[in-house]
Write a structure and sequence with these properties.
Elements (H helix, E strand, L loop, with lengths): L1 H11 L10 H22 L3 H20 L3 H21 L1 H13 L1 H7 L12 H17 L3 E5 L6 H4 L3 E6 L2 H7 L10 E5 L2 E7 L15 H11 L4 E5 L6 E5 L2 E4 L3 H15 L15 E3 L2
Helix pairs in contact: 7-9, 7-11
Length: about 290
C-alpha cells in the first residue's frame, strides 16, 4: 500500500523524491545539527549576532527580488556577495580567532592531543594559593580593586609583554602593595606563572559577551575576557563592593566567601588541568554564578 502511494506521488509530482537514508546520513545530520547549534549559541553571545540578523534581512530581500524578478537588484547582490564575504571575515576576525581558540582548548581535544604526561594538578604550591587568598581578602576589606591572573597550560606571553616584569616570589604583602592606590603598578593585572609573579600592570582583552551583567565593570569584563581566550583562572576584587570573584572558561563566580575560596580555586585548577569530565554537552549559556 505504501509503495502504491509513493508511486502515485512520483507520477504526479516530478519534484517529489524520498532519499535512501542510511546510518551514515543520520550520523552526519546529528553532527551538523550539533555544530550549527553551538555556532549559533556562540554567535548570539557576540556582536556577530547583529551580523546574522543583517544577513537574514538581506536573504529575505533577495528572495523578494527573485520572486518578482527584480533583475537589477539580483545582479547587484550577485556581484557584491564575494566582496561581502571577505569583508565579514576581516571585520569579525577576532571572533573567528576566539572560537577556534576555544575549540583548541576544549577538554575533548585536549584529552586526545595532550602529549604531556606530567601532573598539572600540583602546578601551584599550597603556600602560593594561601598567599593569594590572604591578599585577596585583605584587599577586599579595604575595597582595593585587583586582578590576579593565574596562568595554566596556555601561555600568556602576549599579555605579559604589555606589563612590567616583576619575577618575584608570591606573597600577600607584595600583592597588596602592587594594587595599593596611587602606586605605579596598581593599574592592570598581575600575572602569576610557575609559583612566581611574572609581571604586573598587564592589559587584558575585554569580553564582548552581551549576556554579562551591566552591574559588572571593566575589571570583571577583562577577567572574563582573558578566561575566554585561555585556560587561566583570574581572581577579581571589586573596588566598589570589595566582593571577591573568580573567572574561568568564560564563566564568573561572584561573591566567593573566604571559607570557600581556596576549595573553589582548587576545583577550577583541576578543571583547567582536565581532571573533570569532558563538558562538551553542557555549560553553555551560564556566564555568571553566585556563591556565598
Amino acid at each position: 500500500m505504501l509503495e502504491k502511494v509513493l508511486n502515485y506521488l512520483r507520477t504526479y509530482f516530478d519534484w517529489f523524491y524520498i532519499p535512501n537514508v542510511t546510518t551514515t546520513d543520520v550520523i552526519e545530520i546529528i553532527i551538523i545539527a550539533i555544530l550549527v547549534y553551538h555556532i549559533m549559541r556562540w554567535f548570539k553571545k557576540t556582536r556577530a549576532w547583529s551580523l546574522i540578523k543583517g544577513i537574514a534581512v538581506v536573504l529575505v530581500f533577495a528572495i523578494f527580488a527573485l520572486a518578482f524578478r527584480l533583475d537589477t537588484i539580483l545582479w547587484i547582490l550577485e556581484n557584491t556577495i564575494n566582496v561581502g564575504i571577505i569583508a565579514v571575515i576581516i571585520i569579525f576576525q577576532p571572533e573567528f580567532r576566539r572560537v577556534l581558540e576555544q575549540l583548541g582548548r576544549s577538554n575533548l581535544l585536549s584529552s586526545l592531543l595532550n602529549m604531556d604526561d606530567s601532573d598539572n594538578s600540583n602546578k601551584l604550591d599550597r603556600k602560593v594559593l594561601n598567599e593569594i587568598t590572604k591578599a585577596a581578602y585583605a584587599m577586599s576589606e579595604e575595597k582595593t580593586g585587583a586582578l590576579i591572573v593565574i596562568e595554566q597550560d596556555v601561555r600568556l606571553g602576549e599579555y605579559e609583554r604589555t606589563g612590567i616584569t616583576i619575577d618575584a616570589e608570591v606573597s600577600s604583602q607584595l600583592l597588596v602593595n602592587i594594587f595599593e592606590h596611587n602606586t605605579p603598578l596598581h593599574d592592570g593585572a598581575v600575572l602569576i606563572r610557575d609559583n612566581r609573579i611574572a609581571s604586573a600592570t598587564c592589559y587584558l582583552p575585554l569580553s564582548d559577551n552581551m549576556d554579562i551583567s551591566k552591574a559588572l565593570g571593566t575589571r570583571h569584563r577583562a577577567a572574563i575576557g582573558i578566561s575566554e581566550v585561555s585556560d587561566s583562572i583570574t581572581v577579581i576584587v571589586s573596588e566598589e563592593t570589595g566582593a571577591v570573584s573568580l573567572a574561568h572558561n568564560g564563566v564568573i563566580v561572584r561573591n566567593v566567601s573566604k571559607e570557600k575560596f581556596l576549595d573553589k580555586l582548587q576545583e577550577l585548577r583541576k578543571e583547567a588541568a582536565g581532571a573533570t569530565k569532558v563538558k562538551w554537552w553542557k555549560g553553555f549559556g551560564k556566564h555568571e554564578k553566585t556563591r556565598s
